[in-house]
Amino acid sequence: QVQLVESGGDLVRPGGSLRLSCSASGLTFGSYGVSWYRQAPGKKREWVAFITRANDITTYATSVRGRFAISRDNAKSMAYLQMNSLKPDDTAVYYCVLPELTHFNGKSYPDGFWGQGTQVTVSS
User: Fold this and answer.
1) Is the separation of the CB atoms in 37 and 47 below 8 Å?
2) CA 110 – CA 122 distance, rounded (Å)
3) Which element (helix H / strand E) includes 50?
4) Who's near 44: CB < 8 A, 6+ residues apart?
5) What is the DSSP letter of 9?
6) CA distance 20 to 9
7) Strands 68-73, 78-83: parallel, antiparallel or unpaired by DSSP?
8) Tens-place pLDDT, residues 8-49
9) For the chain, how long is the longest CA-to-CA vector?
């Protein structure tokens, strides 16, 4: 079965850095673009970044542009989110998402396929 497992979330100080990882299994990872989303309590989910399945074309939310970088290694079925200059407003659960994976092996995923999330807390 398809699985996405995020890791790397931690408690960091403002201005610090953190690298999140997303490990995929059960599918041909290189066939799908990857997004990172985040959600903080009381707030709507926020799209953070996207990378295409090939050619490494990336896009970012205005709130993180210039501070975050998404990347991927298809040979390892991994995606990453490098987060620099972290701010308290970056505190959220971060999710790895395959938005293009809406149907697979007879199952439907109307919102794409989501991992379980990893907690990032930015606080002094």
Assistant:
1) yes
2) 31
3) strand 46-51
4) none
5) -
6) 6
7) antiparallel
8) 999 999 999 999 999 999 999 999 999 999 999 999 999 999
9) 47
